[in-house]
Task: structure prediction
Amino acid sequence: VVSEESEEESNGVNLMEFSDEILLHILSYVPCTDLVLNVRRTCRKLAMLCLDKSLTHTVLLQKDYKVNKDKVKQLMRDIGKEIYQLNMAGCYWLPISAIDHVTRCKNLVKLNLSGCHVTSLRLSKMLSTLQHLRSLAIDVNPGFDASQLSSECKATLSRVSELKQTLYTPSYGVVPCCTSLEKLLLYFEILDRSREGFMLSGQLMVGESNVPHYQNLRIFYARLAPGYVNQEVVRLYLAVLSDRTPENLHAFLISAPGSFAETGATKNLLDSMARNVRLDALQLPKTWINGSGLLQHLKFNNPFYFSFSRCTLSGGHLIQRVINGGKDLKSLTSLNLSGCVHCLAPESLFRKAEDDIDSSILESLVVSCCNLRHLNLSAAHHHSSESIGNHLCQLLSRLKHLLSLALPVCSITDVAASVEKPPTAPNLVPQTFGRKVRIGIQTYPRNLADQANQKIESSVFWALMGSLRFLETLEIIGSSFSSAMPRNEPAIRNSLPPCVRAQSVGDSEVAAISQLTYLQSLTLAQLPNILTGSGLINIGLQCQHLRTLSLANLGMMGKVVYMSALMDMLKHCKCLRDLRLEQPYFCAGAQFFQALSHCSSLQRLCIVSRSGTLQSDAVMSFMANCLEVIMCHMFMGESLTVCKNLQQSIVRSFQAERPALNVVIFPLLHEDLTEVIRDVPMRHLDEITLFKSRVAEEPPNLWW
Result:
């Protein structure tokens, strides 16, 4: 027995026998706080490796939801001088006293404090000690006063070449102090009304400098939340650019929802850009492009990102003015045509949005931009004709490098299927909230092999999914879908019916997605022909890397027909971290939460349901079982009293153990919903709570 044990021990694998290079690679997947505060204390060899420069050079705390003020203090004390890049973005739960310990990191070159509340005085003290800083990301909150910045702080800012600034109040922030800027990212999140209901003005604070230094600027990016104040303030930032356009500018991007009128100053800016610069990335408000010949005059070098979201740009103009009639654009890696209803048609003047696309335009696009990695064609009706081999899915299958893709539901249907099943057919699921019609529900198979027997492999969408084996993000969104939770307005009570061509899209198309072995993020919205949700089970079984799942308005609107399949699916989603569900009449009961408890990695949950119900005991049990959950947002049909009591119970029971816990439970149709939403941390609001298409939303690697 002894000899057998000795032999087994000698043949076993001892982790410490691996080379240092292999161990360092393994340790690189461990959060830095665990390395320094825990792993380092296990043995002498790991104590040495955990302090290797390759592991301490860059510290990422932005999604380390278990980190608290004590861990930050200890971390900075142990390895502060070894940290050159520190990312604390979205650490909203950390007190200001914890942020102060950043001053120990004397050698910092990059610092991201977006989402952390830092006053102007504390920022001044912090930056005064960081003389090597070259990249900075901060929030500018009400009460920020640039006059409180010390001369040492301004000296540090004068050397900063990259600045990301999120504005919650009209202000230039620290921009005037950054005289060496090469990259400027601005996020405008200013509300039009104060909490007291007063209208806010876009006027800047008296005494603020109005001379930002843009002479070295290479990248200018501005993203505006809805509201006229954001538009007023961004015009002040653009005013300096209109006087003198930086010679080295190669990326100019402005993302603005709704209508953002062009002024004389912005027209001068665009004219100057057309004369003096060659761009590699471009995004402009739709009103600046629509009806103008701007694209004909702008010059491009080696473009890697274009966004014409919501523009009326026709396919003819797209090919002629952007692609130059089929010019080689192998450098283009990201293209956003979301909401461009005519971008795949030769002209837009006499065309209806529902007319068939011109496949030759899409083919030219695919051939010219063969290295596309991110493509967004959502929020439009892209209907393929009956021509053989020219279906949108068949043409897109040539883009072998795609990593993320967003398509409207009506674009993935086979033309023959949509012809065979017109919208008036008696076997279609009703889309209204009126009296239900009894229908016979076909029994769908619950595994991949049976689906194959139904010959769904012959569909163009099945073939597309089979050709994009390395796709990581997929969005299939109804062209007329709108979330019940818009940004700054009351909840939407009525939804538009799905497109006629989308009526046949259902379980078999969802099953086709299960071919995407490396899928990490999936969004499905307004798929009307979901009858059982059987395809979801296939995805749960096959897509083991799935981390983010968003489902909205699937099947009939008066009943959650896919609940059983969803619960079966969740039992297999061991890597799922974010789950968003938006469905009327959703019942968040004991069975649902029991199934959800199998998602051991789940961190964030958001449920939006008009007339939806929940069981408080089931929610509490779920929170107790799923120790990683730090965000629970539920906007249902329950009373305000029920919602408040449950929210208070969750916070009281779990806040101490989970410092990052953020709980919002509120009636969806309550008049004060917008006031509640404004207190949600921007990280959660932007990434999961609000529904939007995220494919090619920004240029890749815009920041960290």
User: Anything to note?
Assistant: Residues 392-413+460-485+496-688 form a domain with the Leucine-rich repeat, LRR (right-handed beta-alpha superhelix) fold (CATH 3.80.10.10). Confidence is low (pLDDT under 50) at residues 1-6, 419-445. The radius of gyration is 27 Å. The first helix runs from residue 2 to 11.
